[in-house]
Design goal:
The structure holds two protein chains of two kinds. Chain A is of the alpha/beta class. Chain A has a single domain, classed as Rossmann fold (3-Layer(aba) Sandwich), CATH 3.40.50. Chain A contains ten helices and seven strands. In chain A, helix 1 packs across helix 3. The two termini of chain A are 31 Å apart. By secondary structure, chain B is an alpha/beta fold. Chain B contains eleven helices and 14 strands. In chain B, the strands form three sheets. In chain B, strands 3-2-4-5-7-6-12 form a seven-stranded mixed beta sheet, sandwiched between helices. Chain B has a five-stranded mixed beta sheet with strand order 9-11-10-13-14, sandwiched between helices. Chain B has a two-stranded antiparallel sheet with strand order 1-8. In chain B, strand 13, helix 9 and strand 14 form a beta-alpha-beta unit. In chain B, helix 1 runs parallel beside helix 6, helix 3 packs parallel to helix 4 and helix 7 packs across helix 11. The chains are: A alpha/beta, B alpha/beta. The interface between A and B is medium-sized, with 33 and 30 residues. The complex binds magnesium ion.
Chain lengths: 287, 334
Amino acid sequence: MKILYPEKIKFLEKKANEIRQLIIESLSISGSGHTAGSLGMADIFTYLYFHGLNHNPEKPDWPERDRLILSNGHICPVLYATLALAGYFPVAEMRKLRKFKSGLQGHPERGALPGIETTSGPLGSGLSQAIGMALADKLDNGPTSERFFYCLLSDGELNEGNSWEAIMLAGREGFHNLIAIVDRNNIQIDGYTEDVMPLEPLADKWRAFNWQVIEINGHNFEEIHEAIGLAKSVFGRPTVIIAHTIPGKGVLDFERRFDWHGKAPDKKESKKALKELRSFGGNLDEE
Amino acid sequence: MSRNFLNPKISLNPDVFSLRVKYEETREGFGRGLLQAGRDDKRVVALTADLASSTKTDYFAEEFPERFFEMGVAEQNMAGVSSGLAAMNKVPFIASFAVFSPGRNWEQIRTTICLNNQNVKIIGFHAGVATGPDGATHQALEDLALMRVLPNIIVISPADSLEAEKATLAAARIKKPVYLRFFREKSPIITTPETRFIIGKANLLWQGEEPQVSIISTGITVFQALLAAKKLWVEEKISVQVFNFHTIKPLDTQVLDLAARTGAVVVTEDHQKAGGLGGAIAEYYTQKKPTLMEFVGLNDEFGQTGQAVQLLEHYGLDSNGIITAVKRALKRKN
Ligand SMILES: [Mg+2]
């Protein structure tokens, strides 16, 4: 694993900020889409695509690449923005989010854009697909394969029975190279997760299915880095990283508000948000 | 012995109408086909949801234990896992009862296999009332409808165990999602190893002279249609032609155009009348070649417990039921 130097953390922080700006810009142009979850996961996406993943934007189909499966496809603005800034496709394409005949479909579609591993959106089936990939990899490369399979899930989709079917199977298989990351932002469409359908004690649930569980602050690059390192070092057990995130992170007006789950900012809201982001919440002094 | 009108060009079983005819379950054909597909191509893998022996995936599992994945009773997960396997260049066959797969996991099949366009083979067993004593809960009567409305997928419903074997091998070779439908009851072997099986190409089985009605059949009803054709000719000198539509999607429209020339078409299937083979053909005819049609199938009702033979008779899916439908068609035609 690459060392995460302080300069790299600074770089990642700036990159995450760019990604958030791109998310806001594209959402305000499209007029619809999911804002809160996209902003909340920007730091984790940044870490993965700009430090953690073994991938090559110039060769999106390179067979040896790590796989990243986005199960909760509705937060695709963060995936698209990250892929664009990582060089998978021109950043200008972001203007076409959710537009007719665009590769940036409302929910991700495999084949529509380079770097999209699976079609997703309907909740609860992403982990199953990541497991299928890990099974194939185990068959071809044995139990010490160095290819990693990341699956990003929302906390809301843990209401789905299919999620737990997959969690049970992965526990049985004991994949060393499967890393699930749960966006624990405590919101889902109808409200706070603990009101809609309580998930706690969530870590215990995963542990009971034979997973290694790591809880982190999903906005702290050092914690993300350390958790991925721990996940990779444990043998014979899949790892879930329960990443506590703030929905809408980076824009004060959007933070922690479930009504921002499924809507896009209008012109005025976006202008204000972008101003806030460009000045790093008013803390930008060095540039 | 009266004249036999079996199509001589496709080497059908000459014993099909005799008491010597061999009976076999379609799942036996699948089990053999899957094993052979596994020997031919090491990318082939098999998954089941706690039904290894009922689906005859156990033949494959015995020879290729490392390529066999037991999913437990979790069909939704099985669909997603197979999509992931296919994404890594495997050729997964997922086997369960049709009411559960594609019944329970339809959305996962839609999104992760069909829209995602992954090379997965969905194998649904115990289709139709011919499932028998297990009763209505386990008799899939809607699976053809569920599968044929999905883009990208091929839908196949073999008529006997040999055809099941060939369909399995053909499914393994074509790089597309495929749904294979199998029925449980032992049935007479209509075809021979030499009978052609081409996805999307229907076979003419019985070619009466100057046929007055075309019977288009699939699955377990194909044999019943042959019996009906023979009886109609021997007892009443009513001449028909019988086609085996083993492929429901894509439809063989060339053969449909040919069949329409009789001016009356009877479609038979162990499935709801709504949405199955009959529905598919009606969609074609109403748009391209309006043709008088009669449907043999379940009439917006569920099945029940009983022996397959009793149920086929009760729901009018046996040769007598088909004869009645042919006569209805003739009456409307004339
Ligand atoms: Mg959430």
